[in-house]
Design goal:
By secondary structure, this protein is mostly helical. The protein has one domain. About 75% of the residues lie in helices and about 0% in strands. The chain is built from 23 helices and 2 strands. The chain has helices spanning about 1-10, 15-35, 40-45, 55-80, 90-100, 105-130, 130-135, 140-155, 155-160, 165-180, 205-225, 245-265, 270-285, 295-310, 315-320, 325-335, 345-350, 350-380, 385-405, 410-425, 435-455, 460-465, 465-485; strands at about 180, 190. The chain has a two-stranded antiparallel ribbon with strand order 1-2. The longest helix is centred in the last third of the chain and has 29 residues, at about 350-380. The radius of gyration is 22 Å and the shape is globular. About 55% of the residues are buried.
Length: about 500
């Protein structure tokens, strides 16, 4: 294996391959930072450009885009309170408050370092224990997915510590929103009111952009109308994350990277779930940290977790031919187009491609460190733009981002509607994050609960007969109990 990995580095470091890797990472950062342009969309759009390339070169560029885009979402999440991708929604919770304190560079550097550490941990797992992780991930069926989603929903209790009851109400509203559309089992329309656009439900991206970005636009417009002289009163420093701060956050980064890699290796879980789960775990294990008001650990945990998914998602893809998330599904298409069949034989018949990909992921994360830290001075200047220019720019980006998902005006209407809802929620001190979390996890929870009941012919015995399910249910109870004690 070591010899193959050295050969892989030799392949990845070839001038042409290295150029495409750097271009992929840099382009991915830009794609991720633009609201609405997800990592999946970026990889899918650029997939046709790889058809004429050598198999290794094409895959290296796509992997670079994947790594860059997952990180890139944190830039707009931190600076504008507008998650570039669903995976960066949890980063808003502490990233934007830190920007309000004038510490944009510190927040961005924390995101960059955590992303790189999480990504490198996932690469290590990919190289060393991928076959074992893949076998474990295959043990996940509907009951395990249900219990994982239920555990994920307990995060609502953690992120609603200041307004516990209002947070729970917001979570239930999000679950109701997630039921709009076709029934996942019977395909019967629910709450669609004969509106064709509602048959597929409400897309996460327009809801997310509306609640976070457009609601903030409305808040800023209100502030501007009250001010006699419209100015940007936030003074930014240029101080990056210090070594003591890195040392303090490092255990959380490592733990979140491992947890993100594990979640990524579970087919269908994804980076958005990993980010929230890691944020919740960080909040549970750091009792003295002031989450929600600009905690560096609160930024580090979701960013290490969602970047841990990048390597984890490739584990079942390369070893079993089962994609771990939507981006891995596009990469599966790229492998097939190149005449390659993912699975155990791929390691035997095409080791140069497999280990070239492994090496490219390691190098891609190192490149991300330089691209991320090197660009902070430019990124952080965004918040110094006058509000008269910034506010309409965010609104335009939000509108274009929501439209670009499905080329649908209806999604723009959804974004503006949820912007109004988010604005009202901010006025009554009701957190909006639980709605986003419930909209993401709701379909996974309902679908797998009903599949589990069908599998067990109407019995709920899967709740106490499947070991992995029991573990997640125990974690769910512990998480709820911890949140209850904290709010008592």
């Amino acid at each position: 294996m070591f010899n193959h990995l050295l050969e892989g580095f030799g392949t990845a470091l070839q001038l042409g391959n290295l150029f495409y890797l750097i271009a992929g990472v840099t382009g991915g950062v830009v794609i991720g930072a633009l609201p609405g342009l997800t990592a999946t969309m970026g990889v899918a759009i650029l997939l046709p450009f790889t058809f004429g390339m050598d198999a290794v070169t094409g895959l290296i560029m796509l992997v670079g885009i994947y790594i860059g885009a997952i990180y890139g979402g944190s830039i707009s999440a931190i600076l504008l309170n507008t998650p570039g991708t669903p995976a960066s929604a949890a980063t808003c919770l502490d990233g934007y408050p830190l920007v309000k304190k004038g510490q944009a560079a510190k927040a961005l550097s924390a995101s960059t370092i955590a992303s790189v550490i999480g990504g490198l941990i996932s690469c290590l797992a990919l190289v060393t224990i991928s076959p074992y992780l893949a076998k474990f991930a295959l043990k996940f069926s509907a009951p395990e997915y249900f219990s994982l989603a239920l555990f994920g929903l307990t995060i609502i209790a953690s992120i609603s510590s200041e307004n516990f009851l209002k947070g729970i109400i917001a979570g239930f509203i999000g679950l109701l929103i997630s039921t709009v559309g076709m029934d996942p089992i019977t395909s019967f329309p629910r709450y669609s009111f004969d509106i064709v656009d509602l048959l597929n439900g409400l897309s996460v991206i327009p809801v997310l952009i509306g609640l976070f970005a457009v609601s903030e636009v409305f808040n800023q417009i209100e502030i501007m109308l009250k001010e006699k002289h419209v100015k940007n009163d936030i003074k930014m420093d240029r101080n990056y994350m210090t070594f003591p701060e890195i040392k303090k956050s490092l255990p959380t980064m490592i733990k979140s990277g491992i947890l993100g890699t594990f979640i990524g290796s579970i087919p269908g879980a994804g980076a958005d779930i990993a980010a929230f789960v890691c944020y919740n775990e960080a909040k549970r294990s750091n009792k003295n940290e002031n989450f929600g008001s600009g905690s560096l650990i609160g930024i580090s945990a979701p960013e290490a977790g969602n970047n841990g998914v990048t390597g984890g998602a490739l584990v079942p893809l390369l070893t079993l031919g089962v994609p771990g998330d939507a981006v891995a599904a596009v990469l599966l298409g790229a492998l097939i187009v190149q005449g390659l069949t993912p699975g155990p034989l791929l390691f035997e018949q095409n080791p140069e491609i497999v280990y070239g990909l492994f090496s490219a992921m390691i190098l891609g994360n190192i490149i991300l460190l330089f691209v991320g830290l090197g660009g902070i001075k430019f990124y952080s200047r965004i918040v110094e733009i006058p509000k008269l220019l910034m506010v309409p720019s965010i609104l335009i980006l939000s509108t274009v981002g929501s439209y670009s998902m499905n080329n649908s005006i209806f999604d723009v209407i959804v974004t503006l509607s949820f912007g109004i809802i988010g604005y009202i929620m901010s006025k009554i001190k009701m957190p909006s994050s639980p709605i986003v979390l419930a909209v993401i996890l709701g379909p996974m929870l309902e679908t797998n609960l009903r599949k589990s009941i069908l599998m067990y012919e109407g019995s709920y015995s899967f709740l106490w007969t499947r070991p992995i399910t029991i573990v997640f249910l125990v974690l769910t109870i512990l998480s709820l109990f911890s949140a209850y004690k904290k709010n008592k």
